[in-house]
Amino acid sequence: MKVETIKCTLLGAIGASDIRALLGVLRAGDIALFVTSGTFSPDAKSTGTSSREFIRLIDGDEFIDMWLEFYDKMTDDDKNMLPLKRISFLGNNE
After folding, report:
1. What residues contact residue 39 under an 8 Å CB cut-off, 6+ apart?
2. In the 8-state DSSP scheme, what is residue 9?
3. pTM value?
4. Greater model confidence, 69 or 1
């Protein structure tokens, strides 16, 4: 499995060129996971879904959704591999 992670920047969404760069290192039968704390451009999504190799794109919102759904169900040993802590913020809804 190949994994690519890119931190979100103020430059915008992850583009198709980033997806193609990951696809360029895949061999037949490889599975790829591309995770960003930001978003993917429509072209990046299209590049990922039209690829011959399997590549899963996970943006920041989906990662948070998955974390909220599955983290509490993980064993303590598994949680120790990804030690995250839930933080709540209080604020107004203005």
Report:
1. 8, 13, 14, 59, 60, 61
2. B
3. 0.73
4. 69
CB proximity list for 37: less than 8 A, separation 6 or greater: 7, 8, 60, 63
Pairwise CA distance, residues 13 & 30, whole Å: 25
Give CA–CA dist 2/26, Å, rounded.
Answer: 7
Among the listed residues 71, 73, 12, 68, the one whose alpha carbon sits nearest the alpha carbon of residue 44? 12
The model's pLDDT over 17-30, given as tens digits with 9 standing for 90+, comes to 999 999 998 888 88
For 59, counting Cβ atoms within 10 Å of its Cβ (0-12 exposed, 13-18 middle, 19+ buried), the class is buried
Q: Say how far apart CA 26 and CA 74 lie, in whole Å.
A: 29
Residues 33-91: pLDDT tens digits?
A: 998 888 999 999 999 999 888 899 999 899 889 988 998 899 999 888 877 777 777 77
The total number of residues written for the chain in this structure: 94
User: In terms of DSSP H, where are the helices of 1-94?
Assistant: 16-23, 42-49, 60-70, 76-81
